[in-house]
Write a structure and sequence with these properties.
Protein name: Polycomb group RING finger protein 3
Number of helices: 7
Number of strands: 5
Strand content: 5-15%
Strand order of the largest sheet: 2-1-5-3-4
CATH topology of one domain: Ubiquitin-like (UB roll)
Radius of gyration: 20 Å
Structural class: alpha+beta
Distance between the termini: 22 Å
Helix content: 40-55%
GO cellular component, one term: PcG protein complex
Mean pLDDT: 77
Pfam families: RAWUL
Largest sheet: 5 strands, mixed
Low-confidence stretches: none
Subcellular location: Nucleus
CATH architecture of one domain: Roll
Shape: globular
GO molecular function: zinc ion binding
Order of helices and strands: HHHHHEEHEEHE
Amino acid sequence: LLSVCRSCLVKYLEENNTCPTCRIVIHQSHPLQYIGHDRTMQDIVYKLVPGLQEAEMKKQREFYHKLGMEVPGDIKGETCSTKQHLDSHRNGETKPDENSNKETSEEKQEEDNDYHRSDEQVSICLECNSSKLRGLKRKWIRCSAQATVLHLKKFIAKKLNLSSFNELDILCNEEILGKDHTLKFVVVTRWRFKKAPLLLHYRPKMDLL
């Protein structure tokens, strides 16, 4: 597996369909759909480089503000936690007291029970464009913008009683979406200035050569 900067890899794959290191073909026509986010490596980098995570969050906030869009819930949360951590160290509070631990525990429990309702939400219409699958009884859903295409695949597979979510492809504007794409990413890159809801189609997976 190769871990590289995503923005650099995306620029490279705009003109190539091979791995930048070993030159093996990733995919003939949709190489961008077959790259994934290495969260473990990202966490390691954040721990090794002081201030990098805070700088990244700042850039993301500026990006969304520039587009006139609301900052996603996870970025808000990471920013607040980082700021609180830095403030405590500046004030010499290196050891939190018992009350602080209790409040943190209660806040975490409340956050866990939130089920991402405080996240930015996306309205979706899931349409079937294949005669081999049936349509959903309730095709209109609303969920967190941080949900991924993989989450939608699992949702559809469960509703249609499919043996595996890997049997599905999900498309936007007739383009197959990568399983690691968040709905926020899909809206910004594929739906852009169109009105809600985000229209997605699903069909049986097609193996492209």
